[in-house]
Design goal:
Elements: E1 32-36, H1 41-52, E2 57-62, H2 67-79, E3 83-88, H3 95-109, E4 114-117, H4 133-143, H5 145-154, E5 163-167, H6 171-174, H7 180-200, E6 206-210, H8 219-223, H9 226-233, H10 245-256, E7 267-268
Parallel strand pairs: 1-2, 1-4, 2-3, 4-5, 5-6, 6-7
GO molecular function: oxidoreductase activity, acting on CH-OH group of donors
Keywords: Oxidoreductase
Protein name: NAD(P)-dependent oxidoreductase
Length: 278
Amino acid sequence: MSDKPKGMAAKGDQDVLTLETYRGVGKFQGKVAIVTGGDSGIGRSVALLLAKEGAKGIAIVHTPKEQKDADAAKQLIEKEGSEALSIPCDLAEGEETCKTIVDQVVGKYGKIDVLILNAAIQYIVPSIEETTPEILEDTYRTNIFPMFYLTKFAVPHMARGSSIVSSTSVTAYQGSKSLVEYSSTKGAIVAFTRSLSQQLAPRGIRVNAVAAGPIWTPLNPASREDENLEGFKGKEAPLGRIGQPIEAATSYVFLASQEACYMTGQVLHPNGGFVVNG
């Protein structure tokens, strides 16, 4: 993206990890993953890192209108030697859609080792008086309901040692005056993570989350007016810049890997240095 926010590090800076400089060591050799919202942003970076780590198959779940981005992500994944499965759908359609996704992946690979619950939308709503049933329902039907449904159908196909990683947000901890609807779903995801981790612990399935922010992803320009986007660009973290998707993606890879085998019910915070005490 050419219009980079002020303070964003340039490619090649020594303190910034890039997809080109990341070196996999086979952490997910032979594993099968589902990544919702895997066509762009953090989701795409997670999918690519899983491929770099040797994953056998990676299912990218995305909206039909993002097929072009999904095709590009699929090519990048396959370039790393992994199989990529593009699944266009609207997660907000509900339980049956989520069951179809799981059935498609299990039908092809016979199992699910990693479930990345990342898809989300956000609406900029300056005042609670301006929210509508449509905005509220769309936000919850997209951001939190599919996490329940996908997990419900995926868990029976997940063996001990499998992992679920969800995307919450720094807004769940700091709040956001113009993202009340979005932030509240992210708070729900924190509770979902902590509660589900206790439920699935006896089965050896770990459940964690990542609360990223501020990260430069397509979600921000897509949901913000120009003047509001300038405000986002000005949110410099203590490290002095807005983060790149891969700088959040590494937290997902760690939590899903064997290296995090004693972590469940936890949230990692790749946010450039904001202290959230969460």
